[in-house]
Amino acid sequence: MNDTLLDRVELDFRQVAPESGRSRIKLKVTNPDPNSILHVGLKAPGPWLDLIPAQFALGPGQHQSVVAELRPDNSSVDGMTASDITLYAQYFTIQNGKAVPGPGDITYEIHVIPPHSACPNCGAELGRTDSATGDTALIGECRKCGERIKLCPICGTPNTWVDRVCRQNPGHILRTQKDWQSSPGGSADHALIPGDRLGRHLARAWSVPFFPTTRMNAILEWSAAVVSYGIVACANLDPERGIAAISGYEAATGVPLWEIELRDASGIYPDRGGLSVSGNLLFAATVGGMVTAIDIIRGVKRWEARTEAGVYAGISASGDNVVIPAGSSLYVLNSTTGDQKFVLPLKGKINAAPAVSTNRVFAASDDCAITAFSLETGALLWTTMTDGPFDASPMVYAETVYSVSTNGTVYAMSPETGAVLWTASIGTRGTAASPIATSLNLLAIVGEDGFIHLLDPATGHTVRSKRVANSPLRCTPASSGGTIFLGADDGCFYSVDQDFNTSLAYETTPGSRIVSAGLAIYGDLIFGTSTNGLLYALRATE
Ligand SMILES: [Zn+2]
Ligand SMILES: [Zn+2]
Q1: Quick one: which ligand is closest to 171's CA?
Q2: How far is the CA of 126 from the centre of ligand 1 (A)?
Q3: Model confidence pTM above 0.85
């Protein structure tokens, strides 16, 4: 009689194609007894499997369909284990108007096999056999090739962290955020504009460390963060351990993924130093001139190279090229091998990350010059003299090179010839922050006077000038969908919305400053560092 209670004793999800985004198998439970009522309870092996309904009663001869639905989004990375659903059942007979339990409980095990799991990189089986139970589980990293694995939240298929859609079904979206690959400005041309419309308030999603320390020698000195493939990478100087390191965290959660100690303890210059990503590689250059390429997903060193000492600004990686400003020269290295391609000499020191666009590099130097070189040939293309030195990076947007001198003069130049198209002034106190572009097609420039200036990129005309803070704004802002986020010397983050309303968005420690090369944005998360020793992930809310 019990043999006909279940129509199957195994749910094999390896064979199931998801329908409307979900992998489901139906199970039929029948009460075969013509004289009894059957009470049934089902227990799922974990939150990654929903059973609907999980409890029911069946009259004589009745049956019930149970839907078993895979929920990989509820699974921890190593949680989808082949295991069993336990079914409990009990018969009741009606005697003298009362339900009387039948003899003993009935228990069944229904075997569940999650989707098959080959490494998306090397094809190796990701299964891990538990020696005690013989069960197989998915793991967070491929043991054979080291690929970091992300399960599709819809069908459970293993994908890489680079993937934006599931390799099993491109309709399954894994991530939509734009990668923030360089500091400042998010891209090698420093002009990335994510489109997500973000609210103007910020709430802490996570931070490293959780609380500021009061011990002076334990305060980490962070440089600006980059965020790619769901991983935040940020360099820090750790005075307590006496080391310089780069750490990778899961952007959404702050879970530490890897840490690489740099061989040169001079580390990345905290104030204007910055990292850059091209492909899977993250590039960093220490003040002492040690360049390191790291596989950002796996957290392993790929190569090291040397430039001269004196790297006081961010580096810019684009395609095959990594450009490092060292002393008064630009070192151009092959991004895959670290081999030196060119050393491009300037007449002054470089205090700001060069911009790379259309196979050209644009550098601002403290001899008041903006200079362009070809990255194909290393040839000098042009030099344009300006009214002052630069702490701000040039930015290439709408086929124009924009730069702001420490005298507060904004220059718009032709990338082909260096001809000055227009100039404008944001006031005599100048800026150390680079101009950014916004999705409202405006240039946003912040200054030492605590103002934000919004300019028409075609003419240089001021659309709006507004005081944001009572202290200098030295950190390059970041914008997404019309909202601009800023960091100030009073330790606070501010925002400016599409209607130019300014808000105090988040306060860190009084007396600290937000002074790195620039903020970073990934989806609705804003990443910034404070001189209180914290790396912040702040979520934008309405
Ligand atoms: Zn593999
Ligand atoms: Zn999928």
Answers
A1: 2
A2: 8
A3: no
